[in-house]
Design a protein that fits this description.
Blueprint (H helix, E strand, L loop, with lengths): L1 H8 L4 E7 L6 H15 L4 H4 L2 H5 L10 E7 L22 E3 L8 H19 L8 E4 L7 H7 L4 E2 L5 E2 L8 E7 L15 H4 L2 H5 L5 E2 L2 E2 L5 H7 L6 H7 L2 E3 L3 H5 L10 E3 L1 H6 L2 H8 L8 H17 L2
Parallel strand pairs: 3-10
Antiparallel strand pairs: 1-2, 2-7, 3-11, 4-7, 5-6, 8-9
Length: about 300
């Protein structure tokens, strides 16, 4: 199996690969980091609050699993993102921003496809592979991906709470594949550079000061407000949303490791409000914006217009 893991690690879309067994996971460290985060952000993400036990014991909740492959993967560029069909911002008029990562293929789909291909190769290689079980996690299951990836040596947590993986900065995505196959433990050497200890770029770039030396305050984050907060926004939240239609890229783009890429896409929020939900749903289908749906996107567009008219 080790030779197969080496081959998987050489895939061009896999930036780093590691493998944890139940004995490798430091449950006390998981609990410590989660407790510190939750003390500040309790209630912000209901699905996290309700799955605490699953988050803090990944293998205990999967007694069938003997190993977990952890990988960082590169975004898959789309030459013609459907989102570029949205009306572009007009000079001198309100503009709403879509974070650059949304212009790539939806990372959930990219990661799931990579994990499915890996599972197929592992099944073909293993004895009694037909009986093998797998669970793919790409930001869709109750798993502390970033903390487990850090324990596996994939990268180090930056002050913006994301995993920093040179030379990709904080823009790589994470995926985990639990398996019943007895894979060998593979923990990468912990990064030795000290850039994050001396650099405050991501903290200073955050327009809402949601980032501090002690971590992220989720309720102040534009990405949380745009993507995760359901229902109407309070007057304070409306101001905090700023000009974000989807996501926010200030902290990731500020990282010195960040490779060159597309800027945020500036679209016309007034035109988006004028679109039918059917037309808008058709454009965002299969993209990261599909998670929000037309009504929430229009809520954000309306807020962006109000914020920019206040200037």
């Amino acid at each position: 199996m080790q030779s197969l893991l080496d081959a998987i690690a050489e895939r061009p879309d896999v930036l780093r690969l590691a493998c944890l067994t139940p004995a490798d996971v430091d449950l006390d460290a998981l609990k410590q980091h989660f407790t510190a985060w939750h003390a500040v952000n309790s209630g912000a993400l209901a699905y996290v609050d309700s799955r605490r036990d699953q988050l803090l014991d990944p293998f205990g909740m999967r007694p069938w699993a003997k190993a977990a492959l952890l990988l960082a993967f590169a975004p898959r560029p789309e030459r013609e993102s459907p989102l570029r069909q949205l009306p572009l911002a007009r000079s001198g008029q309100p503009a709403a921003l879509i974070a650059p990562y949304a212009l790539h293929e939806d990372y959930h789909r990219t990661g799931q496809r990579i994990l499915a291909e890996i599972a197929a190769r592992l099944t073909a290689k293993a004895e009694n592979g037909a009986d093998a079980s797998f669970e793919a996690c790409v930001d869709t299951k109750p798993v502390l991906e970033k903390l487990l990836a850090e324990q596996a040596g994939l990268g180090q947590r930056a002050p913006n709470s994301l995993l920093r993986i040179p030379p990709w900065g904080c823009q790589a995505h994470l995926a985990i594949l639990f398996t019943s196959l007895p894979l060998p433990s593979l923990i990468l050497p912990q990064p030795r550079d000290t850039l994050c200890q001396s650099c405050q770029a991501c903290l200073e770039a955050c327009p809402n000061r949601a980032l501090t030396a002690s971590g992220l305050e989720v309720r102040l984050c534009r990405a949380w407000l745009a993507n995760e907060k359901r229902g109407p926004l309070s007057s304070e939240e409306q101001l905090l949303l700023g000009n974000s239609l989807f996501g926010c890229s200030f902290c990731t783009m500020a990282c010195p490791d960040t490779p060159a890429g597309p800027p945020p896409l500036a679209v016309d929020p007034e035109a988006i409000l004028a679109m039918s939900n059917t037309a808008l749903k058709k454009i965002i289908a299969g993209t990261a914006l599909q998670h929000l749906g037309p009504n929430q996107l229009k809520r954000n567009a309306r807020t962006v217009i109000e914020n920019q008219n206040l200037r």
